Amino acid sequence: MNNHPTPKEQLQVACSNCSLRELCMPVGLTPEELDRVDELVAARRKVERGSALFRRGDAFGSLFAIRTGFFKTCMAAPDGREQVTGFQMAGEIIGLDGIVNDQHSCDAIAIEDAEVCVMPFDRITELSRDVASLQRHVHRIMSREIVREHGVMLLLGSMRAEERLAAFLLNLVQRLHARGFSRSELVLRMTREEIGNYLGLKLETVSRTFSKFADDGLIEVRHRHVRIVDPDALARLVDQPLRN
Amino acid sequence: MNNHPTPKEQLQVACSNCSLRELCMPVGLTPEELDRVDELVAARRKVERGSALFRRGDAFGSLFAIRTGFFKTCMAAPDGREQVTGFQMAGEIIGLDGIVNDQHSCDAIAIEDAEVCVMPFDRITELSRDVASLQRHVHRIMSREIVREHGVMLLLGSMRAEERLAAFLLNLVQRLHARGFSRSELVLRMTREEIGNYLGLKLETVSRTFSKFADDGLIEVRHRHVRIVDPDALARLVDQPLRN
DNA sequence: CGCACGGTTGACCTGTATCAAGCCGGGTGG
DNA sequence: CCACCCGGCTTGATACAGGTCAACCGTGCG
């Protein structure tokens, strides 16, 4: 039918032999279901560093699974202020914000050269009528995003600068670790300003807090390269501030 | 089949003659679809002021549509801090956070005697396979929650106390207005402390800011009764702080 | 009647923002 | 290959929004 990929293209974009499959697709599919899920990905798209995958106001049509690279999503207030609402890495899904109003309500900017799988949402809804595990998967991905944002609200609403940055670092390194990277070393893909914006802090505060952590022997920082020296102490910062 | 409501109970809990239907259910259903949607609601449940509809850790099984009353949802950090993540009123759906891990990750507390419709999530998923508009509706509700939370992140991450409280009041009154209440008067269902917790402020700051708004002639406050005198000025506070 | 809880207001303190100067490393062009 | 420049970062000095602590008030309930 219409413009589904040809067999050759299908091979290129197939989820069935993609190493990230267990991150963005449901597990336990039958071979037949797997064939059908392969058709979800209409195309791949490269997004170079600094440019947008979509912008606020763009018509919504697809969800995007990140294959490689790093994104930030950010909201703009009417007056021009911006708020980074998240950083997304390989295996994560972006675009969920567009479903309600059939247009995106935030920008998704690549902060590193990236490639995404384009999954037309119509195909997703259609297929998830037949494939229960896909339906369930879609629900879980959206619910997970809701829960993640609850966590960010907790961070922004009740944590002090050190706690915020500690939580941020631990979260990043944990997600990277789930992708096979070190659990103690990471390379920040974003600037201090972007981190600060996400955490509700100014870039100077982020910088100072990095320095303090380094002084206290919790981490080593050299530019964007960070090594977590004392993860337990960071974790204690996050959830045992013994306030009151 | 199993323990679906009897015809009589069905009548009591039927969405088809519920005045809130257009708030929590999709529009444009055929009469046949409407019949089936009526079966979504397994029961109604009363929750009295101060008690929980569900708590963090409770097994997830159902979404809840609020019929009457007012809820707050709040997250707890491991150390005991709490963060109110939202206030929900009639016609709104709560429980979405439970889908990912089959258990709730936050508490839903009635801050006013309430009644909810219990909609087992299995029935929702099952029925949304057949009824496309229900499927779409579920997606939109979840996406809407994601977008709402983006807005809260913007508020918590980049607004000052006055802007936060102005945004909060305007949001509340707008939602109440959509339910047929005044667009200029409202009765707060929550304490200053709950407002402050939600907005990332202390209760004293909330109180002072109310007083300042009153002094400036933007609102009139008497305890929990608030009258919006100058909505435009409030709106200007939110999105034209001309920072820099 | 009186207590208790929610709210207001004041005085003071502190964490983070703001403003400012300077550093460092990488890329560019001569 | 070197000099320069520029963006990102660090660090210091100071300002201020909001937090903290404390006293008091009002209202509704037991």
Provide the low-confidence segments of chain A as ranges. 5-11
CA-CA gap between termini of chain A: 65 Å
Please state the CA-atom Rg of chain A, rounded to the nearest Å. Answer: 19 Å
Query: What is the averaged pLDDT score of chain A?
Result: 90
Relative strand content of chain A: 15-25%
- Portion in helices of chain A: 40-55%
- Regarding quaternary structure, how should these chains be classified? homodimer
* Annotation field: number of helices of chain A: 9
CATH superfamily of the largest domain in chain A: Jelly Rolls
Any idea of the CATH class of the largest domain in chain A? Mainly Beta
Largest sheet composition of chain A? 6 strands, antiparallel
Q: How many domains make up the 3D coordinates of chain A?
A: 2
What is the H-and-E element order of chain A? HHHEEEEEEHHHEHHEEH
CATH architecture label name of the largest domain in chain A: Sandwich
CATH topology of the largest domain in chain A, what is it called? Jelly Rolls
Principal-axis shape of chain A equals: globular
Q: How many E strands of chain A?
A: 9
Describe the structure.
The structure is a homodimer of 244-residue chains. Chain A has helices at residues 7-13, 21-24, 31-38, 121-130, 132-158, 161-178, 192-199, 203-215, 231-239; strands at 43-47, 52-54, 62-76, 82-88, 93-94, 107-120, 185-187, 219-222, 225-228. Chain A is built from nine helices and nine strands. In chain A, β8 and β9 form a beta hairpin. Chain A is of the alpha+beta class. Chain A folds into two domains: 7-155, Jelly Rolls, CATH 2.60.120; 159-237, Winged helix-like DNA-binding domain superfamily/Winged helix DNA-binding domain (Arc Repressor Mutant, subunit A), CATH 1.10.10. In chain A, α4 packs across α5 (132-158) and α6 (161-178) crosses α9. In chain A, strands 1, 2, 3, 4, 5 and 6 form a six-stranded antiparallel beta sheet that branches. At the A-B interface, β4, α4, α5 and α7 of A face β4, α4, α5 and α7 of B. The first copy, chain A, binds a DNA duplex (30 and 30 nucleotides) through residues 160-161, 191-193, 201-205, 207-208, 210-211, 223-224.
